[in-house]
Structures are given as C-alpha cells and as structure tokens.
Amino acid sequence: MQEILCCDELSTKKYARNLAQILKKGDVIVLSGELGAGKTKFVEGILAYFGMQEKISSPTFTIVNEYHNEQIDIYHFDLYRLGDIYEFENIGGEEYFNKGICLFEWGELIEDILPNDYIKITFEKGEKEEERKLQIETFGTKYENIDFSNYKE
Fold it and tell me: Of the chain's two ends, which shows fewer C-beta atoms within 10 Å, N or C?
C-alpha cells in the first residue's frame, strides 16, 4: 500500500490529473471513503486530464455518468444508493469494465465481481481541514510496479 498526502482540494484534483496519464481503456479504480472525503474531486481531476472537466456532474441519482471524447470513454459510478451487488449486476454494470475507464465511488460494494486487476484508493480526512490522505492499493499484477508517488507534484 502506498500513501499520498494532498494538502487541499486543488492538490487532490492535480494528483488525479497527473495519475490519469497512465489510465487507459479497461482500467478500474475503486474510490472509497466517507462522504466529503474527496472522491468526486478526484474524479474531476481525471476528467480534466482528458479535457472533460466541464461535463462533470455527480451520479448520485443516476448511478453512472458517462463521459466520451475521441480519446477515451469514462464511466463514473456512485454506488452509494445500491443495496447490494445484485443491483449492480441487474443494471448490467459488469459490461462497463472493458468499455473504458471505470471509476467507482463506494466501489467496495462490488469488489467481489471486479476484474482481477484494479486500483483501490481510500480517502481519509487529514489533520488539517482540507488535507486528504489517499491510501492506494493495487490488486492483480497490472499495477504492482507503479510508484504512485511519482504523480504527485
């Protein structure tokens, strides 16, 4: 596990934008942490890297928001309101895994059916009000040799 400290909202978005450089179709990221911990801001940073930052909206009531451009498709899920893994399966959620980059807020709900290779980032509030600690775990072999601290400015 690697830990990244972001001093404020802007540095969380910057870190995500820098990390997005390595993301490609089929990548799955699980974003975990309490409400207001920075998960959606992180998604904003990834979208900014791909030039889609103007399009962001919280998928809280729609479960998934889709973002498309010539370069990549990004699927931003908010699974907070799902009751269980079966609801995700019933909406055809697994079909998204290989269609583009999948970002799952509250993704721990579906960890049992995720692909073998994925990144899990747990967000914790830091000592200072705006500070966030990002604990990064990788599963499978695809990401095991990545030094995630290289993407912090």
Answer: C
Q: Using N-to-C axis directions, what is the helix angle for 9-19 and 39-49, rounded to 10°?
A: 50
Q: Give per-residue pLDDT as tens, 33-92.
A: 887 778 888 999 999 999 987 666 655 567 888 999 899 999 999 888 888 888 888 888
Q: Over the stretch 10-42, which tens digit does the pLDDT of each residue have?
A: 999 999 999 999 999 999 999 998 877 788 889
Instruction: Give the global pTM.
Output: 0.91
**Which CA distances in Å does 4 have to 19, 84, 110?**
12, 30, 24
In order of start, what are the domains of the chain with their CATH numbers? 2-151 (3.40.50.300)
Six token digits for residue 150: 């290289």
Long-range interactions of 63-72: CB distance < 8 A, separation 24+:
63/91, 64/91, 64/93, 64/96, 72/23, 72/24, 72/25, 72/100, 72/101
Q: How far apart are CA 81 and CA 15, in angstroms?
A: 27
